[in-house]
């Protein structure tokens, strides 16, 4: 942690010299933020324009478009007529992006992503009125740029801004927040970790639980009425028999062994699910052990949150620290590892930055570095990685090590809240200017 403190202070010192008071005021202008948002998304649009004009799609969107066409043309709905790898709510944006036909699928997906990003930026800054949220808004735009090769082409690009909005609104609009977080969870399951932190530490947990339960019951009833109840939880069971995926942190030792030519260790293509996996001595046991271990650690973090709740009056920070610890556990202890998983972490960090920059600057800097390394790994150096290139594996190892550091930082912060200091000062006094989650 000393090395991280040195890194944070070094970056802060450089930023302080670069961002003069006049430049800071300029960055906190609603007009500047709007221009930054529009400029970034115009850049994205120009990058996607050749794909849009030729009616093609990139990333995971070819598969999404096939599913949408199967639903709209052949009346075969994923998650209802057949078992599906995603929660049933994901079918809504996947089909919605096909509303203007398959040739405009890439354009409509971009519009959906831009609209949700705009809403997230608006809520982070209270539509330009809250200066405390500007730093968080710029962080989210910077992270969106760094991870754009996957953020624009995956479901996480839609679920992540929903989580930002939900976390900001928990205190003052718990029903709306619960609806947003529940919708995000039924698109991609990872926001369940954020919901768990809210249920554990938020003062509005009852409203969140009731709202989330009612929406989930409504979704289940709709799926039952459509005849697909037996597939409602298929997204859980379909992941259970997967092997170690190439980019998962736990897989890193086997990646090195494969690169060094260790007998029986190999990187191979799983054609059934279109991903790279790794096998070798002990890899099957590791793959089988990761899910139980992940849930064991999640249970431990949940207990730590409850203990910290008895000692700290700062529910807002507890929710955010718990959410970061839980979501990072989802990433670090997952036998499946994909570049878009970094979009699970950034929304929590963005809201943390909005509430208390001093406390959240370390994970903010770490997240940006992790995002940059992730984009270098995929798509830039992905083929060298698959072929065992040492430089590419070093990038992967560094990225995965930083994920472990981030998990350690968040768990340590919770530990200190639970067991260090007096009950009234476990986190210290809440900063003046905290907002969103901290408003009661």
TrEMBL record:
Protein name, entry field: DUF2029 domain-containing protein
Species: Cryobacterium lactosi
Claim: Transmembrane is one of the keywords in the record: yes
Subcellular location: Cell membrane
Membrane-spanning segments: 33-53, 103-124, 136-155, 175-199, 206-226, 284-309, 316-333, 364-385, 391-415
GO cellular component assignments: plasma membrane
Homology family: Belongs to the glycosyltransferase 87 family.
Keywords in alphabetical order: Cell membrane, Membrane, Transferase, Transmembrane, Transmembrane helix
């Amino acid at each position: 942690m000393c090395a991280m403190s040195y890194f944070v202070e070094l970056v802060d010192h450089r930023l302080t010299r670069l961002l003069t008071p006049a430049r800071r005021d300029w960055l906190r202008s609603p007009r500047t933020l709007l221009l930054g948002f529009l400029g970034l998304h115009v850049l994205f649009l120009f990058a996607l324009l050749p794909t849009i004009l030729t009616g093609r799609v990139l990333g995971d969107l070819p598969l999404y478009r096939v599913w949408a066409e199967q639903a709209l043309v052949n009346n075969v709905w994923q998650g209802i007529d057949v078992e599906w790898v995603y929660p049933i709510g994901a079918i809504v944006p996947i089909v919605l992006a096909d509303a203007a036909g398959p040739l405009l699928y890439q354009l409509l997906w971009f519009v959906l992503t831009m609209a949700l990003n705009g809403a997230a930026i608006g809520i982070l800054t209270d539509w330009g009125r809250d200066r405390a949220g500007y730093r968080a808004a710029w962080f989210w735009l910077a992270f969106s740029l760094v991870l754009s090769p996957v953020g624009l082409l995956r479901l996480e690009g839609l679920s992540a801004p929903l989580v930002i909005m939900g976390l900001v609104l928990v205190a003052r609009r718990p029903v709306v927040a619960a609806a947003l977080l529940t919708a995000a969870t039924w698109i991609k399951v990872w926001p369940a970790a954020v919901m768990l932190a809210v249920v554990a530490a938020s003062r509005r947990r009852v409203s969140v639980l009731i709202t989330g339960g009612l929406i989930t019951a409504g979704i289940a009833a709709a799926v039952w009425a459509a005849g697909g109840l037996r597939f409602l939880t298929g997204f859980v069971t379909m992941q259970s028999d997967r092997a170690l995926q190439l980019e998962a942190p736990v897989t890193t030792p086997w990646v090195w062994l494969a690169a060094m030519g260790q007998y029986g260790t190999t990187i191979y293509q799983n054609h059934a699910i279109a991903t790279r996996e790794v096998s070798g001595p002990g890899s099957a046991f590791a793959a089988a052990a990761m899910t139980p271990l992940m849930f064991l650690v999640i249970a431990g973090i949940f207990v730590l949150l409850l203990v910290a709740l008895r000692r700290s009056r700062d529910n807002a920070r507890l929710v955010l620290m718990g959410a970061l610890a839980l979501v990072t556990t989802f990433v670090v202890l997952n036998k499946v590892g994909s570049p878009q998983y970094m979009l699970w972490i950034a929304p929590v960090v963005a809201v943390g930055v909005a509430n208390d920059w001093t406390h959240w600057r370390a994970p903010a800097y770490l997240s940006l570095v992790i995002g940059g390394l992730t984009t270098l790994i995929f798509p830039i150096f992905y083929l060298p990685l698959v072929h065992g290139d040492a430089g590419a594996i070093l990038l992967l190892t560094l990225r995965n090590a930083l994920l472990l550091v981030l998990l350690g930082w968040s768990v340590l912060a919770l530990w200190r809240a639970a067991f260090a200091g007096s009950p009234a000062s476990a986190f210290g006094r809440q900063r003046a200017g905290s907002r969103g989650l901290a408003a009661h």
